[in-house]
Amino acid sequence: MINTESGASSSIKPLGFRTGLDRAHLLAQILGASGSVKANLVSMYSSPNRSEMQSFETRARNYIAGCHALYYTATPEYGGGSLPVRAVQLTAWGTGYFSTETIINEP
Description:
Blueprint: E1 22-25, E2 41-44, H1 46-65, E3 71-79, E4 82-94, E5 97-104
Antiparallel strand pairs: 1-2, 3-4, 4-5
C-alpha cells in the first residue's frame, strides 16, 4: 500500500552484499514495499539504484497518484557467477501507460 513503505533493514544481507553497496528494493519503497523482506532486496551499487532505478520508480508512483491501477515487475538478473546482481529488468504498465527498462548494475 502506498505511503506505508519501509527502508531496507540493515540486518538483511542480500545475495552478494558487501560494504559500499545499497540494499535495493525490487518492488520500490515509494510504491509501498517492505524493506524487511529479504526476497525484495538485492545488492546494487548506489549510482544505478539511486538514479535510474529511482527515476523509473518515481514515474510509476506518479502514474498511481493519478488514481490508476499499475502492474509492476522487477526481475533481478544474475549471470556469469558474478555478484552482486548484474541487472534488474523493470516493467510497469497500466491503461495508456507502458514502461520497461533494464538497469545495469555498474559503479
